[in-house]
Design goal:
The protein is of the alpha/beta class. The chain has seven helices and eleven strands. The protein has two domains: 3-62, no CATH class; 68-291, Rossmann fold.
């Protein structure tokens, strides 16, 4: 006959022993099969509860930070960004949207960065409620800012000021942008903004006439698709020459077969390999930049 042993000092510690085995203090035998099955069931429920509790606790620490929409003013006009911060001491990332405005895509990327320990402000360059869906509207809104670079710079400065008011450490900051947002990031770099780094994913690379990178303070990271027909490799090479001539620290990467907007999951031109590689390089860039 097999006896079942429960350690009353260690809840749900069950094992079986043979008769005659020495029993330690705090332990007793359970000889009834039904009682054993009942205890085993209760222990399963308890262990499951503890597991769920610990999982939720870890989730609260790692993923429980909640972002929020932020309405702010720049030169009398309302804009609506998104701010998320895991702690007051977190390094800061300014995130600039594509030509369709601030959407769920930028919010998703902001949340991904927050999970890595960064505060993020996804700014708005078009205005509260302006989220164009038609190509003609997208071209209109981006075109207005391409023609008015001073306004573009003012909007980015206003976003930085807003992030500072929210508690972001803009003295420990990197700017990143996608497509149109990448072009805006390079505009910010040329403006002499005091940021530690500037990164672009499949962003516009042309330098407007009369501008240069002599005032750029931080390192530049360019992640580009070799198969991008909207922003050609000729433009990529031209920018490399400009940055080298200006003495700006930079790294420029092309991903074979990747087209424009290669990071936009669900899009026709999405390339998973390039998306994952570029994101990995960007997170390394952040870690290295804020370490120095």
């Amino acid at each position: 006959m097999v006896y079942y042993l429960e350690n009353i000092n260690e809840p749900c510690f069950l094992k079986f022993v043979l008769p005659g085995v020495t029993v330690n203090k705090g332990e007793h035998f359970i000889t009834d099969q039904n009682e054993y099955e009942m205890i085993r069931k209760e222990c399963y429920i308890m262990r499951h509860f503890i597991y769920v509790f610990l999982l939720l606790s870890v989730s609260t620490v790692a993923f429980g930070v909640t972002g929020a929409s932020v309405t702010y003013q720049v030169n009398g006009q309302s804009y609506e960004g998104y701010y998320i911060s895991p702690s007051d001491q977190a390094p800061f990332v300014l995130l600039i949207h594509d030509w369709d405005g601030l959407t769920d895509y930028e919010v998703k990327r902001a949340n991904m960065l927050a999970e890595l320990g960064y505060s993020v402000f996804a700014l708005d360059l078009f205005g509260a409620g302006v989220r164009p869906t038609k190509v003609t509207d997208k071209r209109q809104h981006t075109g207005e800012l391409y023609k008015n670079r001073e306004k573009m710079r003012a909007l980015m400065k206003g976003a930085l000021d807003t992030a500072k008011d929210k508690g972001a450490r803009i003295d420990e900051a990197v700017a990143v942008g996608y497509c149109f947002g990448g072009a805006a990031v390079l505009e910010l770099a040329r403006s002499g903004a005091d940021l530690k780094g500037f990164a672009t994913f499949h962003g516009g690379l042309k330098t407007p006439q009369g501008q240069n990178y002599t005032n750029t303070r931080g390192e530049i990271l360019i992640m580009h698709g070799s198969a991008d027909t909207a922003i050609t490799l000729d433009q990529f090479a031209d920018l490399a020459q400009e940055l080298e001539s200006a003495g700006v620290a930079h790294e420029m990467i092309t991903y074979g077969g990747a087209q424009h907007a290669f990071t936009v999951s669900g899009g026709k031109r999405y390339q998973e390999t390039a998306d994952k590689k570029s994101w990995k390089r960007f997170t390394e860039f952040l870690a290295d930049t804020f370490k120095n």
